[in-house]
C-alpha cells in the first residue's frame, strides 16, 4: 500500500507541474529516527539543522534544473524524491546486541549473565522467564545498600514452588545487561537459591526485549521492541495497575496489624514493627506515584 502511494506521488510529480517544489526541499531526522520534510530550513528545529539535507528543485542553470520544460519535476529528481518518501515510511532500525552467558551451574543448564545494578554493582544473575520480577540475594542487597537506604523496603511473603518465604520488596533504579537497560524495576530480596548466581532476572526486565538464546555460541541475543506510544514509561497499563494494587494490598495487610501492637507491647515490650512497615510501603507508593507522574500515567491506572 505504501509503495503504491509513493509511486503515485512520483508519477504525479513527473507528469504534472507542481509549484510547491519551486524552491528548497529540506529533509531532517529526529531523535527517534523519523524522517521529516520542509520547504524551508527555518522550519527545522535548531538542534537538527546541522544534519538537515537541502535539495534545490529550481536552478538558474537550465541544464541542471530540477524542473523540466513542461513545468513538472524531472524524472531523475522524481526518483530521488520517491526514495526520500519511501525512507520516511520505513520504521527506525532497532538495536540488536549479544551478551555472553555461562551455560552451567553444577548439573543444571542455566543461562547466567553478568548484570550491573544501579550503575555500581555487577553480579551474576540467572535468566528465568518463569519469574515475573527480579529476585536478588541478601548478599547483593547488602552490596547495593538497600538495608541502610531510606527509599522504602517492606516485608512481604514471597511465594514460589516450595511455598512462601519472608522477603523484602523494593525498587531498583537501574539494571543493565550488556546494552540492554531498564529503569525503576520492582525487586524482591529473598534467600539465595544457588552459590553460582545472586538472583533471577525475570520478565519485568526481559519483556522489554525480544530475545533468543544461541546455545552453540553461548550468547543471548537481545533486540529492542518498538516503542508503544500507549505504554507510559515503556510499560503497559496492566503493569502500572498491578504495581499500585500490590503495594496497596501490602499496606492494607500491615495496617490491620497496627492495633495489635498494643497487645505485643504488653507482652514483649515496646514494638512498632507493623507501623514501620506501613511507613516503608508508603515510601514505595510515593516513589511509584512520582515515577508515574514523570511518565504521564493516567490517574485511573494508579
Give the helices and strands as they follow along the chain. HEEEHEEEEHEEEEHEEHHH
Q: Give the CATH superfamily of the largest domain.
A: Acid Proteases
What is the tally of beta strands?
Answer: 13
* CATH architectural category of the largest domain: Beta Barrel
Please work out how many helical segments DSSP would assign: 7
Gap from first CA to last CA: 40 Å
Q: What's the helical proportion of residues?
A: 25-40%
CATH level-1 class of the largest domain: Mainly Beta
CATH topology category name of the largest domain:
Cathepsin D, subunit A, domain 1
Q: Output the structural class.
A: alpha+beta
Radius of gyration, in Å, reads: 28 Å
User: What is the topology, as strand order, of the major beta sheet?
Assistant: 5-6-11-7-10-9
State the shape. globular
Quick overview of this protein structure:
The chain is of the alpha+beta class. It contains 7 helices and 13 strands.
Amino acid at each position: 500500500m505504501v509503495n503504491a502511494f509513493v509511486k503515485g506521488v512520483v508519477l504525479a510529480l513527473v507528469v504534472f507541474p507542481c509549484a510547491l517544489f519551486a524552491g528548497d526541499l529540506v529533509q531532517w531526522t529526529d531523535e527517534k529516527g523519523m524522517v521529516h520534510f520542509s520547504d524551508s530550513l527555518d522550519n527545522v528545529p535548531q538542534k537538527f539543522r546541522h544534519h538537515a539535507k537541502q535539495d534545490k528543485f529550481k536552478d538558474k542553470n537550465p541544464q541542471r534544473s530540477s524542473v523540466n520544460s513542461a513545468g513538472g519535476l524531472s524524472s531523475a529528481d522524481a526518483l530521488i524524491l520517491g526514495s526520500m518518501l519511501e525512507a520516511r515510511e520505513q520504521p527506525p532500525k532497532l538495536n540488536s546486541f549479544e551478551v555472553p552467558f555461562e551455560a552451567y551451574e553444577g548439573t543444571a543448564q542455566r543461562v547466567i549473565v553478568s548484570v550491573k545494578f544501579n550503575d555500581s554493582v555487577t553480579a551474576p544473575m540467572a535468566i528465568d522467564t518463569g519469574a515475573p520480577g527480579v529476585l536478588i540475594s541478601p548478599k547483593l542487597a547488602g552490596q547495593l545498600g538497600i538495608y541502610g537506604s531510606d527509599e522504602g523496603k517492606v516485608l512481604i511473603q514471597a511465594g514460589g514452588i516450595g511455598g512462601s518465604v519472608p522477603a523484602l520488596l523494593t525498587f531498583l533504579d537501574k539494571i543493565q545487561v550488556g546494552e540492554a537497560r531498564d529503569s525503576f524495576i520492582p525487586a524482591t530480596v529473598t534467600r539465595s537459591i544457588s552459590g553460582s548466581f545472586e538472583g533471577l532476572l525475570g520478565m519485568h526486565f526481559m519483556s522489554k526485549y525480544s530475545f533468543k538464546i544461541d546455545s552453540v555460541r553461548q550468547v543471548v541475543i537481545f533486540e529492542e521492541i518498538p516503542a508503544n506510544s500507549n505504554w507510559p514509561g515503556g510499560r503497559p497499563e496492566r503493569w502500572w495497575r498491578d504495581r499500585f494494587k500490590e503495594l496497596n494490598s501490602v499496606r492494607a495487610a500491615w495496617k490491620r496489624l497496627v492495633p495489635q501492637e498494643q497487645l505485643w507491647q504488653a507482652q514483649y515490650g515496646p514494638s512498632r514493627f507493623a507501623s514501620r512497615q506501613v511507613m516503608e510501603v508508603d515510601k514505595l507508593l510515593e516513589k511509584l506515584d512520582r515515577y508515574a507522574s514523570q511518565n504521564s500515567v493516567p490517574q485511573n491506572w494508579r
